[in-house]
Amino acid sequence: MVVLTANERHALERLEARERHVRRGATLQRDKDRAAEMFILRKGMMMSSVLLDDGSRQILRFHFAGDMLAVSSLAYRAASETISALSDCVVCPFERPAFAAVITDHPRLAALIMVCDQIERAVLTDRLAVLGRTSAKARVAAILIDLRNRMRMLDRGITMSFTLGLTQEELGDATGLTAVHVNRMLRQLEDEGMIAREAGRVTFTDERALERAANFVDRYAGLDLAWLPAGR
Amino acid sequence: MVVLTANERHALERLEARERHVRRGATLQRDKDRAAEMFILRKGMMMSSVLLDDGSRQILRFHFAGDMLAVSSLAYRAASETISALSDCVVCPFERPAFAAVITDHPRLAALIMVCDQIERAVLTDRLAVLGRTSAKARVAAILIDLRNRMRMLDRGITMSFTLGLTQEELGDATGLTAVHVNRMLRQLEDEGMIAREAGRVTFTDERALERAANFVDRYAGLDLAWLPAGR
DNA sequence: CGTGGTATTGACTTGTGTCAAACTGCGTGG
DNA sequence: CCACGCAGTTTGACACAAGTCAATACCACG
């Protein structure tokens, strides 16, 4: 969609100079911890979440390879969310001054990063509308579609069938439901012929119906990048 | 917190060169409309919302003077949310190329805009957790505190008492509740001595209790801007 | 005065949560 | 290799929070 200049590519590569491995289940950043680092996720799947003081957890977002993590340290001294690994992962840590250098030297990269922020924001607001205004069935349908789409962006081979790699507890924490009720909704979607399941693997058997049930909006379509400044 | 250079101030003033008046109840931008403009809200109170296809509405965010509006046009060809005026407002429209020029010439302003994006994001994720995981009473308490704080940022005279300027229907659309239930929760907060009400005016009579009920986190505290590049 | 939007309250319904029990699959250690 | 335990799933019975519907009251405004 956008062809980077050699200089721009080089600047981004410098951010990814170091590597760190994170085990499945491990925590990369804990809410309220001092946080100076940011990361690029190179491999694996992570999530960010917050814990409320009654002990319940809300999962805010799932992260896949290529995502920038802990961007909120741009603004805050302490982390505002917990980031943990859902599978074995590789991340590339970098410091805020390195980031400042990139956006100073490469205005177009700054603009592109803002575009990514806006996409994230649009996805977040969609989720807000889903949590505030839709039924349990719609929420479960929505998260299934979202996960499939995110995975497909990295592996075009994925079409109707994928392993979601999440427990029903986690699905519940992402959708604002209990694990028990997630289970009931999955069963219902299955009974109504929209999905099939075997051993953690989900197959969409009626994608249209699922999208209708979920109020689905594709936030990675309809982009307009014509306004970007020139590359350096 | 950050002192801008004369050049930076000048660049921002150029964005605010034109003015447009928006009547209470009018719509500045409609969801799915072609959207090339962005705005700075100079005066008044607005909100952005989305309409789901079952007709229900989710209010995503309230905007106050100084906020940048329609920032999602940075990424999208069409608007992803409706922005409408809750009171008579004045906005300053500007085009995306003007924005591109600002971030190209003034890296520190680009960085500051990213910081604001991150604050917005943190606020959004808090709301996500509130909608996903807290009771109706907590949601209503949370929105009252949030509105009071936002208003206080513009008028330090506001402390325990303010006019919220929203119908209970709107409170419901923001919290994911029905207007009827919002009413019941307001009554309950009142009966429990946390707030008092007369004619659209709300007074916090026990702020601590209200904050506890709401799971409140102050997202405008704990900022760290030491990493910003130098001003130009 | 009406009239339309908003607020308030009550009676009833429904969606989702809670609790508990059984079941499954899998890794671990004896 | 088996037995055990643990984490996750599935299902049922029941409780409760929030939604729905409807009637009334309260304004502000033409």
Q: In terms of per-residue confidence, which ranges of chain A show pLDDT below 50 for 5 or more consecutive residues?
A: none
Q: What top-tier CATH class of the largest domain in chain A fits best? A: Mainly Beta
Rg of chain A over CA atoms, rounded to whole Å, is: 19 Å
Counting copies of identical and different chains, the oligomeric state is: homodimer
Helical percent range of chain A? 40-55%
* Greatest chain-chain contact: A-B, 57 and 57 residues
CATH domain fold name of the largest domain in chain A = Jelly Rolls
Largest sheet, spatial ordering of strands of chain A: 1-8-3-6
Number of domain units of chain A: 2
Structural classification of chain A? alpha+beta
CATH architecture of the largest domain in chain A: Sandwich
Taken from the alpha-carbon principal axes, the silhouette of chain A is: globular
Report the biggest beta sheet of chain A as strand number plus sense, adding barrel if it closes. 4 strands, antiparallel
The total of helices of chain A stands at: 7
Distance between the termini of chain A: 17 Å
Please indicate the percent range of residues of chain A in DSSP E strands (runs of 2 or more): 15-25%
CATH superfamily of the largest domain in chain A: Jelly Rolls
Number of strands of chain A: 11
Q: What order do the SSEs of chain A take from the amino end to the carboxyl end, as H and E?
A: HEEEEEEEEHHHEHHEEH
InterPro entries (chains A, B): cNMP-bd_dom, cNMP-bd_dom_sf, HTH_CRP, RmlC-like_jellyroll, WH-like_DNA-bd_sf, WH_DNA-bd_sf
Keywords (chains A, B): DNA-binding, Transcription, Transcription regulation
Organism (chains A, B): Sphingomonas psychrolutea
Pfam families (chains A, B): cNMP_binding, HTH_Crp_2
